Amino acid sequence: MRLTVTYYLDVISSWCFFTEPAWAELKKRYEGKVEFQWKIALLDKTGLPTSREQEEWFYRRSGTLMRSPFMLSSAWFEPGRPEYLAPNCVAEAAKDFGITDDHVRLALAYAGLREGKKFGEWEIAAQIGADAAKIDKKELLERARSPVVETRVRADTADFHSMQVTQRPTFVIDTEIGDRAVFSGFARVAPLVAAVDAMLDDAEAYTAFAAHFGAPPKT
């Protein structure tokens, strides 16, 4: 019985940055039992700060709540930019080179949020991504700027909004028996583990029932 966890994120999100240990723990704990995937949910101007001072205030809040021993850098932030396509599309484009794990998008997030690199610029984001992926920068940049990748990113963002949630990270847990759990804005692993355990238990119960009774009667 398949169970899938989908992680909706924006590479520039501080909350997503701080939730990465929970995501890594979840993947380790359920390796071989659960399918994991991540998708981009672009932040737009309604979710972005209007100044660097405001961004730093948000960083102090998220950093304090997550007990972070360091403060994130706001040097990458460009007031007035309505969205940050470059780092997100570069991370997404890496999938087309067979890189479906987390390390390219994590390299981008670290470069921007920890080192302050202006990864909102296409050339900078592509260089970071290419170095992490060990692929040609020009090829990665061309793919990242392609309509195919942007269309995919915007479609995933639209799917995110269709759930009527607003926070990144958002985790969606689905099973083949039709159960779904949505955790929007959760950054710690404990509630996710509780949900996955409960849903795996239910899925296994359905498998056991099917072994005893087979398919339901047609009438």
Q: Could you describe the 3D structure shown?
A:
The chain starts with a strand and ends in a 6-residue tail after the last helix. It contains eight helices and four strands; from the N terminus they run E-H-E-H-H-H-H-H-H-E-E-H. Helix 1 packs parallel to helix 8, helix 3 packs parallel to helix 5 and helix 3 crosses helix 6. The mean pLDDT is 95. A four-stranded mixed beta sheet has the order 2-1-3-4, sandwiched between helices. A hairpin with a 4-residue loop joins strand 3 and strand 4. It has a single domain, classed as Glutaredoxin, CATH 3.40.30.
Strand order across the biggest sheet? 2-1-3-4
Mean pLDDT: 95
| Binned strand content | 5-15%
CATH superfamily, called what? Answer: Glutaredoxin
Please tell me the total number of domains.
1
Query: How helix-rich are the residues, as a percent range?
Result: 40-55%
Q: Can you count the beta strands?
A: 4
CATH architecture group name = 3-Layer(aba) Sandwich
Sheet of most strands: 4 strands, mixed
The name of the CATH topology is Glutaredoxin
Q: Report the top-level CATH class.
A: Alpha Beta
Short descriptors:
4 strands, single chain, Glutaredoxin, 219 residues
List the helices and strands and how they pair.
Layout: E1 3-9, H1 14-29, E2 35-40, H2 52-65, H3 85-94, H4 103-113, H5 122-133, H6 137-144, H7 147-162, E3 170-175, E4 180-184, H8 189-213
Parallel strand pairs: 1-2
Antiparallel strand pairs: 1-3, 3-4
Helix pairs in contact: 1-8, 3-4, 3-5, 3-6, 3-7, 4-5, 5-6
